[in-house]
Amino acid sequence: MKKVWLAFNPNKEKAILAMAQLRKYFRNKKIKIVSGDRAISRLTRTDLVVALGGDGTILRVGRKVAGTDVPVLGVNLGGLGFLTEVTMKDLYPTLDKILAGHYSAEERMMLKAEVWRNGKKKGEYLAVNDVVVNMSREARVISLDLAVGNKAVANYIADGLIISTPTGSTAYSLSAGGPIVYPNMKILVIAPICPHMLTLRPLIVPADKPLTITLKSDRHEGNLTMDGQVGVPLLVNDVVKVAAAKERLNLVVNPYKNYFEVLRTKLKWSERA
Predict the structure, then answer these.
(1) Which CATH superfamily is 110-246 part of?
(2) Cβ-count burial of 164 within 10 angstroms (0-12 exposed, 13-18 middle, 19+ buried)?
(3) Is 55 a catalytic residue?
(4) 62-96: per-residue pLDDT in tens?
(5) Residue of 37, 47, 55, 145 marked active site
(6) 3-104+253-267 adopts what CATH topology?
(7) Secondary structure (DSSP) of 129-176
(8) How much is the pTM?
């Protein structure tokens, strides 16, 4: 290993302190360190990305490394953090294993969202966790037509609609009543947000079925959000096409924990109040 990209949130004191320690660690190993967005254009020559912070840092980094084979190690400096599995306690033993070549990375599915207006594509975006369509301003329900493949599903009168990857099933989708999905499955989760009809429940579809969402609310604008970080305004009759992206995120697996142990720890399963 010759080069590592250190990604972090400069507004968090814990991340700044951890960065200083990591710089020293990698310099002692004679490994070149790059940081900041200037490293993005050279990712094809980077051997590892270490993302310090919470899941938000991983999501930002994941969209930037999309299309490369660079593995990403998420280091949890916050609270919940499903993607940043490695704690500071496990960090340096984990890095020792990685440098020795004894590690594994999971290929995580990403989403591609396209916005179409009057038959023309207005933009294309990637997401690691989820794509959300909801109202942009007023606290009112929105009307959305959903199709899976070329088959109409339903008109959703709701606060919005969440399209989630298996990785994102433990994020916004979970809060909206969606299921927890094992992260390497090839499916999409469709979860309505506070639907007007209680019979509209979360839906799981194969990842090879593209989704089409049409904004039908009269006189009300909508909003498209990727991973809760990138937002795009929508107009009436805009169409959002969502599909599994060809890009993937290679996420380094914590060698000291499995997925179910992460769930037990984060969600406090088996604990009594």
Answers:
(1) Probable inorganic polyphosphate/atp-NAD kinase; domain 2 (2.60.200.30)
(2) buried
(3) yes
(4) 998 888 889 999 998 876 778 877 888 889 999 99
(5) 55
(6) Rossmann fold (3.40.50)
(7) SEEEEEESSSS--EEEEEEETTEEEEEEEESEEEEE-SGGGGTHHHHT
(8) 0.91
